[in-house]
């Protein structure tokens, strides 16, 4: 006899098969709760699992949150800050379940790919991983990679789209990221084009007002997304005036 629980599991597996290149080497852990009483008994264990995952650099890829006494599976594909389960960015609902908790633990550099985008095989992921010393999770279609002491970005096919030449690089925000080159800082876009010259001694991400704090020498000031100084701009040194010596007799003669 097929129960509602069995049917829900079947539907979940079908959805995963149809929508994702499934799991690769991800660890799957299921905690089953058939009744409200059993669910209550599991809650302490659930909280402990969440703490363990939140403190793990390899963040969970799927987590469930309770809503109206039901369980919602949500897909996330980015790392989160330690101890910050509440800050997980939900990217899409996989399904609503009433009797199952599903956790997928992310192993290093392996990601869940939506079939709606480019498909990647496990072999392909391993080939990407083997080329680099470190690979970040994909974000906005790009993954940051490190080779030796230099950083760049690859797309979901593993193609290098931003050269691996930067001493440091940050995550993209609104299609811009900070980079460091030859000890200086600036901004590039997702195509690798330099948007704000790499000339600053220090620079921070843009705030909600579209301004970024930057430093040259000892001067701190704010620039906009065109690279123009708009606040606390350092004064330009005045050029020394050149006296007009034409027609002045040389007193040494």
TrEMBL record:
Pfam families: WG_beta_rep (PF14903). It comes from the Bacteria. The chain crosses the membrane at residues 88-105. Keywords: Coiled coil, Membrane, Transmembrane, Transmembrane helix. Residues 39-66 form a coiled coil. The keyword Coiled coil applies. PANTHER family: DUF3298 DOMAIN-CONTAINING PROTEIN (PTHR37841:SF1), GLR2918 PROTEIN (PTHR37841). This is KWG. The lineage of its organism: Bacteria, Pseudomonadati, Bacteroidota, Cytophagia, Cytophagales.
């Amino acid at each position: 006899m097929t129960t509602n629980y069995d049917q829900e599991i079947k539907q979940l597996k079908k959805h995963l098969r149809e929508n994702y290149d499934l799991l690769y080497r991800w660890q799957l852990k299921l905690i089953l709760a058939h009744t409200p009483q059993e669910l209550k008994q599991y809650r302490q264990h659930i909280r402990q699992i969440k703490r363990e995952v939140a403190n793990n650099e390899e963040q969970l890829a799927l987590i469930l949150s309770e809503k109206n006494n039901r369980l919602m599976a949500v897909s996330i594909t980015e790392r989160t800050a330690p101890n910050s389960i509440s800050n997980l960015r939900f990217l899409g609902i996989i399904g609503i379940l009433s009797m199952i908790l599903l956790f997928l633990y992310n192993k290093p550099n392996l990601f869940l790919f939506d079939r709606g985008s480019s498909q990647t095989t496990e072999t392909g992921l391993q080939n990407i991983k083997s080329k680099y010393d470190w690979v970040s999770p994909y974000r906005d279609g790009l993954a940051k990679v490190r080779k030796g002491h230099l950083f760049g970005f690859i797309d979901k096919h593993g193609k290098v789209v931003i050269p691996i030449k930067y001493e440091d690089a940050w995550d993209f925000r609104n299609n811009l990221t900070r980079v460091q080159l030859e000890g200086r800082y600036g901004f590039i876009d997702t195509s690798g084009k330099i948007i704000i010259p790499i000339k600053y001694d220090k620079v921070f991400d843009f705030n909600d007002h579209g301004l970024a704090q930057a430093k040259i020498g000892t001067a701190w000031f704010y620039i906009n997304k065109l690279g123009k100084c708009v606040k606390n701009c350092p004064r330009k040194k005045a050029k020394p005036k050149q006296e007009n010596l034409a027609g002045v007799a040389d007193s040494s003669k």
